[in-house]
Amino acid sequence: MAERPDYYKIIGVGKNATDEEIKKSYRKLARKYHPDRNPGDKQAEERFKEISQAHDVLSDPDKRKEYDRGGMFAGFTGSGAGGFDPSQFSGNFSGGLGDIFSNIFGGAGGSAPRGARGAGGQRPPQARGHDLETEVSLSFDQAVHGTQVSLSVPTSKPCPTCNGSGARPGTSPKVCPVCNGRGVEAQSQGIFSINQPCSNCKGSGTVIEHPCPTCEGSGAQRSVRRLRVNVPAGVRDGSRIKLAGKGDPGVRGVPPGDLYVITRVSESPIFKRNGDNLEVEVPLTIPEAIRGAVVEVPTLNGSKRLRVAPGTKHGTVQRLRGEGPPRLGGKGNGDLRYRFVIDVPASLSAEQSAAVDQLSQVMNGDPRANLFPQGSPSTAQAKAGEN
């Protein structure tokens, strides 16, 4: 007889843990070991299966009582004739992390098809149209201030002949005889029951006996949808704008998918993105850095003057708080940061060279003295030569 698995230890809770504690611990572990976050990691995949298996038992009051009594779980091996194959769990969560918490924890995943609650009260995946994704190119100014763009998106539309039902005019879809309209099939794995999309109707709950001659039963025709999309101010390169319900319409009238617009923002020759803020490199002449000055700098809406303090060092940063790009979500604006850099000429005229010589004679002190607390090597060598 194989060793009895310790589901409490696998989930990371005590035997007296509440349902909420079990759920909280499971969520944390499921996020950590989910295959979507660990592609190609077999150990993480096996760990995820163990966690899912343990949660399925401990989250069900009847199964948990049976397990605590050491009943049918005492000789559990996880595989073999009549046993449970943990790999079956991966089928329930093929949609990724969003589906796992929607299906297991009763998240807002939309309404289920008629009669769609399966064993354990879980909802099967709901049929819906495909999500679509497209890209839009924006200038830097458009991304900062927001704009409206036109898009042409290849998609589909309900078939005009059958109005999206997929059935020949004068007929209608029939309830699937395999799942009785539920859209799912319950596959028994020992004491467990796993819901899978119906193999006959592919989860729609209906079958087409007489397909529409125009769309051949799909209920849709390919088309190009033209949209005007409002791009919010502050988007970055790679931002995703979700247009709910603007994706492909579902087969035979089920809800449509979503459209995701990916923004591609061209770089600015002046402003550089750094998180929510923008940075500008501002050159200073050597006299400006030494004596101080008032310099004009660009902003997103024109220009402003900044006071440069006397003795400003290379790399000094001044900030204009709240005058950067808008933060997405209406949380104010970022900052504008100005980094002062000393503009050192690559070559000097005779007059400039003479001026630098004069300056070097009156600028006393060794700026590198602090690098050698015991005295500079040249000084030490000079003293040694005198001795």
Detail the poorly predicted runs: 72-126
Radius of gyration: 34 Å
Distance between the ends: 91 Å
**Residues in helix, %:** 10-25%
Mean pLDDT: 79
Sequence of secondary-structure elements: HHHHHHEHEEEEEEEEEEHEEEEHH
Strand content: 15-25%
Give a short account of the largest sheet: 4 strands, mixed
Shape: elongated
Number of helices: 10
Enumerate the strands of the largest sheet in spatial order, edge to edge or round the barrel. 10-11-15-14
Q: Helix- and strand-based class?
A: alpha+beta
How many beta-strand runs? 15
What are the main properties of this structure?
387 residues; alpha+beta; 15 strands; 10 helices; elongated; four-stranded mixed sheet
Can you put this structure into words, describing what you see?
The chain has 387 residues and is α+β, with helices and mostly antiparallel strands. The protein is built from ten helices and 15 strands. The chain has helices at 7-11, 19-33, 42-58, 61-68, 89-92, 97-105, 140-145, 286-291, 350-362, 377-386; strands at 132-138, 147-158, 174-175, 184-189, 192-197, 206-207, 220-231, 240-243, 259-265, 272-274, 277-284, 293-299, 302-308, 317-320, 336-342. The strands form six sheets. The chain has a four-stranded mixed sheet with strand order 10-11-15-14. Strands 1-9-8 form a three-stranded mixed sheet. A two-stranded antiparallel sheet has the order 2-7. α2 packs antiparallel against α3. The chain is elongated and about 100 Å long. The N and C termini lie far apart (91 Å). Mean pLDDT is 79; it is low at 72-126.
